[in-house]
C-alpha cells in the first residue's frame, strides 16, 4: 500500500481571517488540505501551493498577526499572554504541519534511494561492452541508469530547498517574536524541543 499522509492548514482566528488575503499574485489558488503521496513529492506543484498558503498565514504576516492578537491587551503582561496564544495556537501548529510535509518527502526520498539501489545493482560503469558491435552501448546504458535517479534527485533537491526556506522564515519569526513579545524566550528552540508533543513551551 502506498505511503500517504493527509495534512490540513491550522485554523486561523475567526476574528482576523478576513484581514488575510490568501490569493496570490500569480493566480495560484490556496490549498488548505492535501493528501501527500510520493507523486506529490516528485511533482510538487500542489504541495508548493499548500506550503505557500501556510507560510502566508503565519510567517509572512507575523507582525500583523501579533498586532491583532495583542491590541486588546492593556498591560505588558496581558500583551505577552496574548502573544503566546498566537504562538501556541497558530504559529507552532503551522510550523508543525510544514515540518511534517517536508519530512514525508524526505522519507520518500530515502525509500526511493533504497529501492533504486536494490533494483539497479549493476552499474553500467562496472560492465564490459563490445563497442565494435555497438559503439553507443555504454553511453545508452549510462543514460538509462541515470534517468532512474532523476526523480530521486529532484525530490532530494526539493527537500533541501524547503528546509532552507523554513530555516530562514523561522529564524526571522523568532527574531520578530523576541522584539514584540519576549526578548529572552527562545521561541524557535522551544518549537524544536517539543516537535513531537507540542503541548508545552
TrEMBL record:
Pfam families: MIX23. It comes from the Eukaryota. GO terms for cellular component: mitochondrial intermembrane space. Belongs to the MIX23 family. This is Uncharacterized protein.
